[in-house]
Write a structure and sequence with these properties.
With 195 residues, the chain is mainly α. It has a domain of 136 residues: Tetracycline Repressor, domain 2, CATH 1.10.357.10. Helix content is 74%, strand content 0%.
């Protein structure tokens, strides 16, 4: 990794940590720089603005932190129910980057920035569309294997699963990690009910 790439990575990593805990609007460029060895000039060499850095955070860091958990789960077994359950369980419990206390960084940005910033909304929507497509492909494989009726619409199931994840992440901030076990039990019932 070149020095320039290392500097960019350092900025994004520190920004991710601060924004995940404090929110995008509450985190200033100065606050990010205080936690790094990077100068303001170096920051602006890599990013024209805080907004550009925030979009890079979605495209680079958040996706890299969350996507491997999704990919590892989907297609892991021949049973789509097992895979969809494992995906959500691993995102909630096994992913080392995500905490119950702070929820999901992508979900947090959806709440904080999507209503007020079109560029954030577009980047977050793209990120979610990729996840939705991956789940849809899992559902289609299940339908082709005869595990699930073709009466089900893959997009509807995918959006439902993503919505459930977003909800449990937010509720976990208030109810604590023990809520995840209750949710996962009901989520598994939902998956088993799909015929």
């Amino acid at each position: 990794m070149s020095k320039a790439d290392a500097t960019r990575t350092e900025i994004l990593k520190k920004a991710f940590d601060l924004i995940y805990k404090n929110g995008y609007q509450a985190t200033s460029i100065d606050h990010i720089l205080e936690t790094t060895s990077v100068t303001k000039g170096a920051f602006y060499h890599h990013f024209k603005s805080k907004e550009e850095m925030g979009i890079s955070l979605i495209d680079d860091v958040i996706k890299k932190e969350i996507w491997p958990t999704i990919v590892k789960s989907l297609g892991a077994s021949k049973n789509f129910r097992t895979n969809l359950y494992k995906m959500i369980k691993d995102l909630l419990i096994a992913n080392p980057t995500l905490t119950c206390e702070y929820g999901c960084p992508a979900v947090n940005l959806i709440h904080e920035m999507a209503p007020i910033n079109e560029r954030f909304k577009k980047a977050l929507k793209k990120n979610m569309a990729e996840w939705r497509k991956a789940i849809e492909e899992e559902i289609i494989r299940a339908q082709e294997a005869g595990q699930l009726s073709t009466d089900h619409e893959p997009e509807t199931i995918a959006l439902h699963v993503i919505t459930l994840y977003h909800g449990v992440r937010n509720m976990g901030k208030v109810l604590g990690k023990s809520y995840y076990a209750t949710f996962l039990k009901e989520y598994n019932r939902y998956l088993q009910s799909l015929q």
